[in-house]
Structures are given as C-alpha cells and as structure tokens.
Amino acid sequence: MIKWEGVMPAVTTKFTEDDQLDLVMFEKNIKAQMEAGVNGIILGGTLGEASTLKAEEKETLIKTTLSITEQKIPVIINIAEQTTEDAIAVAKHAESIGANGLMLLPPMRYKATDFETVTYFTAIAQSTSLPIMIYNNPVDYKIEVTLDMFEELIKCDNIQAVKESTRDITNVIRIKNRFGHRLKVLTGVDTLALESLVTGADGWVAGLVCAYPAETVAIYNLVKAAKVDEAMEIYRWFMPLLELDISPQLVQNIKLAEVATGIGTENVRAPRLPLQGAERERVLKIIDTAMKNRPILPA
Is 120 a catalytic residue? Predict the structure, then answer.
C-alpha cells in the first residue's frame, strides 16, 4: 500500500572515484532524506544514472535502500527497459526482492502508438501485484499518456498514480476533474512544483531534494497547510537551484549541489563527465549564492 503523496526523491546513485558504488555516501543521503520527512524513495531514474548500472548494481541499491528505510517509507523502482519482456522481468524481480512499488516509463527507443503504449503498461501491471505510477513526460520521451489512455490503464487496479511532467500545469486539474482520487498526481518538474501543488497535485517527485531535502519538504508541507505565502518565500530562493533540474546535465548539476550540502559527491559514470569550464563556474555560482542565502525554515 502506497499513499502516493508528499515528497518522493528521485535519488542519485553515488560512485567512488574508481567508479564503484559508494554505499557509505548513498546511505548518508538516504538518511538525510528520511530525517527531512520524505514519503518515499525512487531508485533507478535518470538521476540514478540507471542506464549505466549493471543488473547486480541495481539489485545492490534496492537491497541497500530497503535495509536503510526499514519499511518506514516505500522504495519505488523505476522501469525503463527496451522490451516488454525485459520490463516484466524487472518488475517481477523487484517484487521478489522486496520493492514496494514501480514507476513506469513508456518504451524508450520507439515512439509507440497510444494503443501500443497502453498495451505495454497493462502487460507490466498484470505481471505484478506492486502499485504503479506512470511517468508521463512527452517533452523528453516523445510519448504522451492522454486522459483517454489513462481511462484504459486504470482498469488495472495497481495503476494508481501519475508522475505528471507534461509542463502543462492545467493537466493536474484535468486529471483530478476526470479521475478524482482514483489517480493520484505527483508533479515531476521541479520548476513547476509549487504551482502544481496549489492546483491539486498530491505529491512531488523531486530532483533538487537530493541536495536540499528539508527545503523541499517544507515547501510541500506549507502548501498543503494553506500557507502558500510562506512556501513562496522558500520557493523563490530555491528557483535558481530548481532550474538546474531541467537540463541534460541535471545529474552533474545536482551532484555538485549535493557536495555543497555534504550529502553527496560529484562522481558520475561515463559517458557523463563532471562539469567543465564556464558551465561549471556558472553552476557553482548558483549553488554558492543559494548556500549564502539559505532560508531559515519554519518549525
């Protein structure tokens, strides 16, 4: 049972300088997320550099996270495989080793039709009892999951939520108007998070939370307590940082921010490389300015 609400970090994968999993720093970050009050942990997304991880590394990360969280919050596994067969295999394996839920991307290297996309998601859903969140991001993945498609998908009881990343905030309202509480909505774009929460999103799948968990959770809690003005004060400070999430180099950007807050390193896995030159200086300046003006959070 997952409530599909609150802040759910899409966490980064920590590496050592010799390109091994850095489980010590990974645990430090997960514990910081939990101390801030997040509602779940999402593994294996873009921020987790999942496309570069070996199968055994993914399994290690899942088991490590389950051990750290001790069933206090759900651990959700992202699925972004190339074939339906592989996606089903990952879903079944995740369930067998104790994962609590799944986030599903559409087929990645083929622009599937609406019918093919629905068939793909349905096949995965029918292969597992785990609760599922569909990742709807047509900007990056070129496939939009429309309301009519969701009408078909929710015939599967375990398809329960959507990570809403269309960049159209009014889509939050359309989903809520059509499906009510049957389909929970979690905003997936950091720079539209407060606005989406105000218009009715149930939660926030966040990126910069990896470095700033307390500030992210504070914004969510303040909005849900109808203290939008107080939330806006933090959100205005946060915005230059949140913009680091909407970039092809979001992993490098966020890992630099994690260094600043002491809960990560900037080690990435090739072909990604640490930021260089003027772009590195630009990002470091944004982070440095934010750190010097970090807000005092309300109790």
Answer: no
Q: What is the pLDDT of residues 203-226, one digit of tens each?
A: 999 999 999 999 999 999 999 999
Q: Look at residue 17 in the predicted model and tell me its pLDDT.
A: 97
Residue ranges for the known binding site are: 205
Distances (CA, A) of 203 to 40, 138, 187, 194, 219: 10, 20, 6, 10, 11
Annotated catalytic residue within 14, 58, 163, 184: 163
Identify the CATH number of the domain defined by range 6-292.
3.20.20.70
Q: What is the pLDDT of residue 197?
A: 98
Res 273: pLDDT: 97
What residue numbers does the annotated binding site for pyruvate cover? 205
Which of 14, 58, 135, 176 is labelled catalytic? 135
Is 212 known to be catalytic? Answer: no
The residue ranges of every structural domain in the chain are 6-292
